[in-house]
Each structure stands twice: as C-alpha cells, then as structure tokens.
Design goal:
Blueprint (H helix, E strand, L loop, with lengths): L9 E6 L4 E4 L2 E3 L6 H12 L3 E6 L11 E4 L3 H9 L7 E4 L6 E3 L19 E3 L3 H10 L10 E8 L3 H12 L3 E6 L11 E8 L2 E10 H15 L7
Parallel strand pairs: 1-4, 1-6, 4-5, 6-9, 9-10
Antiparallel strand pairs: 2-3, 7-8, 10-11, 11-12
The chain binds ligand PMT.
C-alpha cells in the first residue's frame, strides 16, 4: 500500500451545514464551515481513495480531485448518501445536519404580517446516520453489511456519555466526539481536538492539532479497524 494506503477504497464524506429553507431567500443553518469534512476528504484523496464529497453549505470552496455532490438540506443529503451506499467502503459523516426544518417551505418570499410576533413551526428531519445503520442491519439482525461507518457527535456537555449513546443508537462503527465548547475546537476553526469511541469505549483521544492531522489519524484508525492494513 505504501503512501497510498487507501488505494482501491471508495469513501464518502459529508461536510458543511445543511440549509433548511423557509422561502426562496431565507433558511435555517448552523456554524459548520465544512473544514473538518474537507480535511477528511483531502486526507483520503491523498491516501489514494476514490472520494465522494457530499457537501452542504460551506465557507470556502471544496477541495479538488474528488467527486463533488451538492446537497443543500438534510433531505437532499439523505438521498445523496443512501443511493451511494452500495458502492461505498467507508462513510464519514462530518456534516452538521439540522435536526429540524421549517414545516412549510413557501414558494414565494414570505410577506411581513401585521403582527409583532411570528411563530415558526419546525418538523423533525430524517437522521441520516441512523438510516445508514438501519440499512446495514437489513436482512439479518446479526450480520452487518455495507460500508464502515464513522459518525461525529458535536457536544457541549457530558461528551463521552452522549457520544457513546449516539454510537449505539445510530449504529455506527466509530464516533468522533467533538467538544465544541473547547477553545480551538469544533465549528469554523482550522484546528480540532476530538475523542474517538468504538463500541468498547475510548479508542483514542486526539489533542488539539490541525483538522488535517486529525483526519490523517482518523483514517489510520479506520484502516486498522476495518482490516484494511492486511498483507497485499
Ligand atoms: O465544519 P467545521 O466548521 O469544520 O466544524 C466541524 C464540526 C463541528 C461540524 C464537526 O466536527 C462535527 O462535529 N460534525 C457533526 C455535527 C453534528 O451534527 O453533530 P450531531 O451530534 O448533531 O450529530 C451526530 C451525527 O449524526 C453526525 O455525524 C451528523 O452528521 C449525524 N446526523 C445528525 C442529524 C441528522 N438529522 N442526521 C445525521 O446524520
């Protein structure tokens, strides 16, 4: 494998924050810049993988040298991810997906009403990570098929407990816990500090370093856990 240890592997990475439209010019989104997902996609590309980047709203342009799929909302991202699962060896879900979207998407720009107050009704979005987990378990309760799945968990409190709970509920192989209240970590920064958990507990804590360095380490852990480092 040499310097291209992911050669022959097809990976799918999600990045950015989803945009949930209210009308043609207004939407709900979050602070994700896409940098973490970009770094993961770039690291995989440089290790020889065939990379598909499913990209929501991001601050900068996506990296070159990979397949780019635009997905504005959570629903579009769900579709873009699910149709590609059968041809994917690993999925990394670094995108910040909105948990809710406006119940009504207006066809034309909403008019200002007479009232001083406006209440927006929101409805729950599909959980993409959970849908992947369910897809993998289809057919047999015991056998897990399909790609190796890495989720993220953006947390501000009880980081470990919440991350491990998300891992089991969403049925992924690894979860990257991101304490976004920590200085230099999380949304918008060029650096990050994370803890990687597997079903058995903490796998590795990655102290504050560039998002690219976090991404390199993450792929090393994935290769090892997915059994991709074997003799070739
Ligand atoms: O983009 P940056 O500015 O570089 O910031 C990076 C980051 C903070 C966005 C990133 O490191 C991160 O933590 N991403 C996950 C953010 C998030 O949505 O966390 P969550 O705990 O709400 O969701 C947990 C997991 O479920 C995530 O993998 C998420 O993609 C997924 N999810 C969530 C909701 C939903 N409806 N569908 C999902 O698939």
């Amino acid at each position: 494998a040499g310097s291209r240890p992911l050669a022959g592997k097809r990976v799918l990475v999600t990045a950015g924050g989803t945009m949930e439209r209210l009308d043609p010019v207004r939407y709900i989104t979050n602070d994700s810049s896409g940098k973490m997902g970009f770094a993961i996609a770039e690291a995989a590309r440089d290790q020889g993988a065939d990379v598909t980047l499913v990209c929501a709203r991001t601050d900068g342009p996506p990296p070159a040298g990979l397949r780019l799929v635009k997905a504005e909302s959570a629903e579009e991202m769900l579709e873009a991810v699910m149709v590609r699962l059968p041809e994917t060896d690993a999925v990394v879900k670094a995108a910040a997906v909105a948990d809710y979207r406006p119940a009504v998407r207006h066809e034309s720009k909403m008019k200002k009403g007479a009232s001083e107050r406006l209440t927006l009704e929101l409805v729950r979005n599909p959980d993409i990570l959970q849908a992947i987990g369910e897809w993998r378990r289809q057919g047999s309760a015991a056998a897990v098929r399909g790609p190796f799945v890495v989720g993220f968990a953006a947390e501000t409190n009880d980081v470990e407990r919440n991350a491990v709970e998300k891992l089991s509920r969403k049925g992924c192989d690894l979860i990257v816990a991101n304490d976004v209240s920590q200085e230099g970590a999380g949304f918008g920064t060029d650096t990050n500090a994370v803890q990687v958990y597997g079903a058995e507990g903490l796998v590795e804590a990655l102290p504050l370093q560039s998002k690219r360095a976090v991404a390199e380490r993450l792929w090393a852990i994935v290769r090892e856990r997915a059994g991709w480092n074997g003799p070739q």
